[in-house]
Amino acid sequence: MAGLSLRRTRLNPAIRELTREIRPVVGQFIQPLFVVESLSEREAVPGLNDVWRDTPESLVQQVRADLQKGVSKFLLFGVPAEKTTANFDHSFTAAQIARVRQEFSDDVWLAADVCLCSSTTHGHCGIVNEQGDYVDNEDSVAALATAALQYAQAGADCVAPSDMMDGRVAAIRTQLDNAGLDRTLIMSYSAKFHSGFYGPFRVAADSAPGDNIKLTDRASYQIDPARPSDAFLSSQRDAEEGADILMVKPGMPYLDVLADLSARIAKPWAVYQTSGESAALELLTQAGLARRERINAEAWTAFLRAGAAMIISYDARHAHDWLSSE
Ligand code: PBG
Ligand code: ZN
Fold it and tell me: In whole angstroms, how far apart are CA 13 and each of 6, 25, 27, 160, 216?
């Protein structure tokens, strides 16, 4: 009778722990936060577990609670009350960045998402032309660079453009450097796909495109899921323009892209476990068909296996508990 070969290293918790190659830890997580100007009380984001549209007050409480859970890195989405089509006012979001910095000093690492979709009447990530059928690149980049500069001046450690316009990383880097902000990082959403997994986010950020406009989706600026080569070109270009951190988004449906790009481009890679992905795992849990601790730990392990250095997850605030329960 033949003896064991590979099963010997699977036999008990001790040998399984010793032979493990991937170990997600809470320190590599970034927690998204939404702060919404128009609210008097915070609201839950539909579909997600313990994720909120915060008021400025509740935002500070949430960050304090997250720090207790070992989470100290954040990605902030500001949602202003006033929507317009140009000449945006970024002061609400800038003020929230300044407040978090003032309250928590260097105890938090704060990235600010840079986009226009929470500020526009139509929900697109840039400035739309008069005919309502095209997002103008040049005008959008100028407006994005202005926002990034204001967020950096307010105290963000990092600015994270999520709009997918051409040339915005270079424009942002130039603005930051000219203002003496050469220590502010840029995390580029460099491989951001035109995905159906963004549903809960668009409710949270008040940014669903298509209201009163011909252009109903983001296909003319986000990457087609069937074009991995476009994701490579976009990431390579953003690295050349000065991005410090690159990103693949969504995560689970694009693990192949993450593995390929992280092997080909030697930059720190982030992966964004999107709102739709987290909601899917939450629905499995609520249907009694899985445990959220286990399926999230499994997804996070897959991200690291595929080459991510850091994970942006709506469940970052539970990572410590969930990972230690597995
Ligand atoms: C838009 C933006 C999106 C996300 C961050 N910024 C998605 C989109 O609407 O295109 C991520 C969404 C998620 O977590 O689902 N600038
Ligand atoms: Zn956007």
Answer: 15, 19, 24, 40, 52
Tell me if residue 214 is catalytic. no
- Index of the ligand 1 atom closest to the CA of residue 162: 16
Please indicate whether residue 192 is annotated as part of the active site: yes
In a domain, 5, yes or no: no
Alpha-carbon span 311 to 32, nearest angstrom: 11
d(CA 30, CA 221): 25
**Is 16 part of any domain?**
no
In a domain, 27, yes or no: yes
Q: Number of helices (H) and strands (E), helices first, in the chain?
A: 11, 12
- Choosing from 73, 83, 192, 267, the catalytic residue is 192
Gap between the terminal Cα atoms of the chain: 34
Total domains present in the chain? 1
CA-based nearest residue to 50, from 247, 292, 304, 324:
292
Q: Is 12 a member of any domain?
A: no
User: pLDDT 10s per residue in the chain (326 long)?
Assistant: 689 999 999 999 999 999 999 999 999 999 999 999 999 999 999 999 999 999 999 999 999 999 999 999 999 999 999 999 999 999 999 999 999 999 999 999 999 999 999 999 999 999 999 999 999 999 999 999 999 999 999 999 999 999 999 999 999 999 999 999 999 999 999 999 999 999 999 999 999 998 789 999 999 999 999 999 999 999 999 999 999 999 999 999 999 999 999 999 999 999 999 999 999 999 999 999 999 999 999 999 999 999 999 999 999 999 999 999 76
Query: CATH number, domain at 73?
Result: 3.20.20.70
Q: Could you list the residue range(s) of the whole structural domain that residue 256 is in?
A: 22-325
Ligand 1 — pocket residues by CB below 6 A?
Answer: 113, 115, 117, 125, 162-163, 197-198, 201-202, 207, 218, 274-276
